[in-house]
Design goal:
- The protein is α/β, with parallel strands linked by helices.
- The chain folds into two domains: 171 residues, Glutaredoxin; 101 residues, no CATH class.
- It is built from twelve helices and seven strands.
- The chain has a seven-stranded mixed beta sheet with strand order 2-1-6-7-5-4-3.
- Helix 3 packs parallel to helix 5 and helix 7 packs across helix 9.
- It is globular, with a radius of gyration of 19 Å.
- The chain binds zinc ion.
Length: 293
Amino acid sequence: MTHQNSHLDRFSIESILRDMRYAPLTVCLILIAVASVTASPWSRVKTSVAKRFGQDNAGASQWTEERQLEPYLIRSEFPLGDIQDLVQDLGDLQVDLESMLRLECEPRPIQIYLFSSKRTYDQYLRIRVPEGVNRQALYVPGTDAGRVYAYRQRELEIDVRHETTHALLHNALPYVPIWIDEGLAEYFEIPAPSRSKGHRHRKELRDAIRYLRWKPNVEALEGKRKLMDMDANDYRDAWGIVHFLMHGPAEAREALFVYFDEIQSGAAPTPLSQHLRERIPNLNQAIIDHLKQ
Ligand SMILES: [Zn+2]
């Protein structure tokens, strides 16, 4: 139990609850606990992580398969051969994210726990991350490793890519504004070939533009401080802005890269909206025109 206790000394929980049939995303919750543990050097972290696995494995292991695929350690209650495409995607996810966002992830391990059912998932989390029980998937940052938990259901692959995107972003940046964190996780949660045109948010935003006179509001998204401030429309809108950043004019990407550089520098960054407005006249119309296509 020392493993879980030390882990819970410092954690924040990102969790998503998806309606299985209708609105895919309904609730996202984050809880942040006070940090009191200092980060250990990588080599020490690695040793202690290995030891912990050894201890866990000494008991009756619930894992059917355990696979190291840098930076991931995947532990699964079912054969990973059943989700071969997902495992392959995870291998590509860090490369995609680093190249598209011009970021470099630190080699902090990411543990991915996959459960065969909601029952065993809840059982596992109840004693380790009780706040995560009843959520469909979650990412828990930690000083030794990021941890992703998910269970087998129709949207497992989306959930794992979504939560693992959070883990990778938090390995790359000292701080990730919540709306960008979620917008990017939504963007990367589907397989790479579908990312530019295949996300359900694309149709949702087209419809909103056509029927509801939807307008982007980057500044309002920037005002969100906690996951609980983000509703389903905010996720959709954050995805829309991220899509504009990824596939819109080059100036939009340039603004994002400058913004990330500022975050990396440790100084208070100029809001991304400001970087965008300096480079793109009529930003709102440019975003609408991009998303209407
Ligand atoms: Zn998320």
